[in-house]
Amino acid sequence: LEEITAKPFQDTGNILKQGYLEKRSREHSFFGSEWQKRWCVLNRRTFYYYANEKSKQPKGTFSIEHYDARLASHLRKDSRKRCCFELICPGKRTYEFTAPSPAEAEDWVDQIQFLLKDLSSLTIPYDEEDEEEPYNDVDSSDSVNTTSHNTTLNQDEPNIKMEEDDIYEVLPGKQPKQQ
Fold first, then answer.
1. Which of 8, 35, 39, 102 has the CB geometry, 3.0–4.6 Å to 22, for a possible disulfide?
2. What is the pLDDT along the chain (179 residues), one digit of tens a residue?
3. Is the overall model pTM greater than 0.90, yes or no?
4. Rounded to an integer, what distance in angstroms lies between the CA atom of residue 53 and that of residue 27?
5. What is the domain count for the chain?
6. In this structure, what CATH number is given to the domain that contains residue 66?
């Protein structure tokens, strides 16, 4: 029987990955640890990190859009260097993490890269081979033909006269009621 852990925030429907990672602090002091254990949650667009899995308020959050995720063994010199990855974006802060294992680091990178591809594909790519005439119900080339076709139909029945304000068609053999 698996233990169900408490979900740390309200938007739990879109969680794609969560777990403990060590996050390199931006400003580490001489006495403080350079790497801090954080409960990390990845949803479709946002990366959250908490003090622990029961925390209600995140210590930090950032949109992963425009970031790139990659393994980064240069971040550590110890035995855990193969467990490191980073999220980088030109002009924005770089986030550096250490996963519990090399496989876990790869999984985080894969999940983030998958999401980034998904985010960039929200704009449907234009492919000239699949080019079709765009649908336009207002100004299409068919509208000219439709107009001339309707004119032709009306010319076939020259005996029918319609008043300008009358929106109803007068059928042959029936006369409109006069008021």
1. 35
2. 444 444 445 455 589 999 999 999 877 666 667 899 999 999 989 999 999 999 999 999 999 999 999 999 999 999 999 999 999 999 999 999 999 999 999 999 999 999 999 888 765 555 555 455 555 566 544 444 444 444 444 455 455 555 556 666 667 776 666 65
3. no
4. 23
5. 1
6. 2.30.29.30
